[in-house]
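Blackboard transcription, Thursday session:
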Amino acid sequence: AQSVSQHNHHVILSEAASLELGCNYSYGGTVNLFWYVQYPGQHLQLLLKYFSGDPLVKGIKGFEAEFIKSKFSFNLRKPSVQWSDTAEYFCAVMRNTGGFKTIFGAGTRLFVKA
Amino acid sequence: DTEVTQTPKHLVMGMTNKKSLKCEQHMGHRAMYWYKQKAKKPPELMFVYSYEKLSINESVPSRFSPECPNSSLLNLHLHALQPEDSALYLCASSLSHAQGINYGYTFGSGTRLTVV
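(Written on the board underneath:)
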């Protein structure tokens, strides 16, 4: 089945550790790719997006993601996490499947220890 | 104004009730969306409106009826819901849904619906 897969459901890191959250999708053809973040008690917010061009995308709060077409991946990275990065992170993919639809991955809960 | 405002924030309704969820944005976005999110699950697409016209209905039961009265407002009318419909209902908007270019969503805080 076509899907968006986030490999890690829960991640625990200490402050200053590096972060990489995996995201793979199984759709062929042209896609738009996104990472959203949901801080505790807050609504979903867009972190970054990829449409075309440079496969390395920089977003807010020091996050970046790299689109690797051959691997159908769009992993999220941050060199040094902070306690305030504790949140749930969702990868999302938009493609044309009976209309342009954005499908979300299951999410990764990140907890950063102070 | 860079927000999507959803009302009410919480709603408890019986299975025979009729209620409506409201969503409003004043960012000039021409695409609006309803998503449903169950606990510890990702948001699931329900409806897409593009330029006030229903563009996508993800086979949602007819007890959910969307309405887009103008470019700033999106409603979701609820009737004869089931307990399994209890969830967080999220509204989102984006600049445009046309031509497959999604500029990213701005989400509202959601309406937490409980059907009793």
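Lecturer's comment: The CA atoms of residues 18 and 89 of chain A lie 15 Å apart.
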